[in-house]
Amino acid sequence: MRKPEPWNTNNEKAPGTSAKRDGHQIPSTRAQLRHWKTWIALITITAATLMGWYAIWSLLFIYWVGISIRNKALFFVEPIDMKDSPVTFWSTVCCWLTISILGLLQAAGFF
Length: 111
Fold this sequence. Notes:
Elements: E1 17-19, E2 25-27, H1 29-32, H2 36-51, H3 55-71, E3 73-76, E4 78-81, H4 86-107
Antiparallel strand pairs: 1-2, 3-4
């Protein structure tokens, strides 16, 4: 008997895959491109860091703040839900915003 895939406790066919005759699943082209935004971001921050453009991290932190507020949850070392831990949630959001603002000010040459 085949061991179930870790993402699938019912051992059903994964979305975006096709089954071979031996029971293994082959990712389709669409499934391989599923995380294209993540790959673009990784390439961008790697290139920006190598070129010394650290303000890109400030923009990334601002993006994370927006996503966290929209989802009412964030992940920093561990998941933090706004409803369960509002002080920790808002402290982390404020810290991220402060880091972002300072990074952008430094990139603009204010200090």
